[in-house]
Design brief:
This is Cytidine deaminase. One of its GO terms (molecular function) is zinc ion binding. One of its GO terms (biological process) is pyrimidine-containing compound metabolic process. It comes from human gut metagenome. Belongs to the cytidine and deoxycytidylate deaminase family. The protein is of the alpha+beta class. The protein has a single domain, classed as Cytidine Deaminase, domain 2. Helices cover about 30% and strands about 15% of the residues. The strands form 2 sheets. A two-stranded antiparallel ribbon has the order 1-2. A hairpin with a 6-residue loop joins strand 3 and strand 4 (about 70). It is globular, with a radius of gyration of 15 Å.
Length: about 80
């Protein structure tokens, strides 16, 4: 059985073209990347999600000394949301 997922999206050529709530979400993700622990890859990643209530949650990646094991920013955000 073949399943298919389709979705519509809009393409923006510049961050300034995004609606203000989405620009804020990008800014929150950028701020979250500042708290990332990327001692091995040096690739800091931040993630942000807006809840239905309007509250914004953030997460960042965390690398461990057994690299590449660690937590990605999106997973950290979801763990925080569940806490």
């Amino acid at each position: 059985m073949v399943k298919q997922i389709c979705f519509d999206y809009e393409h923006y050529a510049a961050l300034s073209e995004l609606p203000e709530p989405d620009r804020r979400l990008v800014a929150e993700a950028e701020q979250a990347s500042a708290s990332a622990h990327a001692a091995y890859s040096h690739f800091r990643v931040g993630a942000a999600a807006r809840l239905r209530s309007g509250r914004i949650l953030r997460g960042s990646n965390f690398e461990s000394e057994v690299f590449p094991a660690g937590l990605c920013a999106e997973r950290s955000l979801l763990f925080y949301a569940q806490a």
